Hints:
Layout: H1 2-15, E1 19-23, H2 32-37, E2 42-44, H3 49-61, E3 65-71, H4 72-76, H5 80-89, E4 94-99, H6 117-122, E5 128-130, H7 135-145, E6 152-156, E7 177-180, E8 185-189, H8 194-206, E9 211-215, E10 218-220, H9 224-233, E11 237-244, H10 249-260, E12 266-271, H11 282-288, H12 293-304
Parallel strand pairs: 1-2, 1-3, 3-4, 4-6, 5-6, 8-9, 8-11, 11-12
Antiparallel strand pairs: 5-10, 7-9
Pfam family, one: Transket_pyr
GO molecular function, one term: 1-deoxy-D-xylulose-5-phosphate synthase activity
EC number: 2.2.1.7
Amino acid sequence: MRKTFIESLIKEARQNPNIFLITPDLGFSVLEPFAEEFPDRFLNVGIAEQNAVGVATGLALSGKIVYVYSIIPFVTMRCFEQVRIDVAYMNTKVRLVGVGAGFSYGSAGATHHAIEDIAVMRALPNMTVCCPGDPLEVKGIVQESVTYQGPMYIRLAKSGEPQIHPDDTEIQIGKSVVVHEGDQFAILTTSNMLDVGYKVAQVFRRQGVKCSLISFHTLKPFDHLKVAELIDSELPIITLEEHNIIGGLGSIVAEQIAESGRGVKFKRIAIPDQYSHFVGSQAYIREKFGLSESQIVETIQSFIGF
């Protein structure tokens, strides 16, 4: 996803001289192509995330479209006051680009794990929250972000996620993407769990179980119409995310189901409300929290009852 992000941003920057990229001393081996091609539109502010957001806001108020790139906890929480006041409250055209969704930086420990970011960012008025699940979604979101009004948070993974969608799939901020249609239950994914959800759906489809798979690459604004369709169809709904079970995709869908007044069978699969004290690969930590492919298949089988 990181490579797709910078390639897409470079393509847009060639057409739009107002695009500017800032990093608080991160992104090595990723951002160099942009810095080399646009040295006057790239700034490394050093390990100073608050300054990065403040500078980005000033540039945005001067007419620039500014992207601030860093590891997720650093670009969302270390500088949260600046994000809240300078970016969200002032409704500036700043794009916070966080890399390392969920346990992507598993071996770096809890300081680098990104399990609260969606909840934090979607609670900010004016903030658009995008969580692409494959390179095509990244490309589409970057393209739309250039002209999109107001601040944005773009959550990226870092593990070489495969492309799930066909090349001609339309990616539009605020609209979900149907990967598979099915009439037995629906799996809703966001961010870096799209690939896992796809593999889980394939397991069921090989067994003759027809499940829907839907990617929600935008969590704010949210595609409530798609969820309303699922509620009306009375399909069991399962949400899948590598984020705290509180405040992410599962919470959004739960809120809509509750307010609909309908009795829909519903299950959230996410990280329990606790920090990881496990250190290791992303796959290792996922398994510790029940988020491996086989564990998810078993959870769904138990939930659906077959």
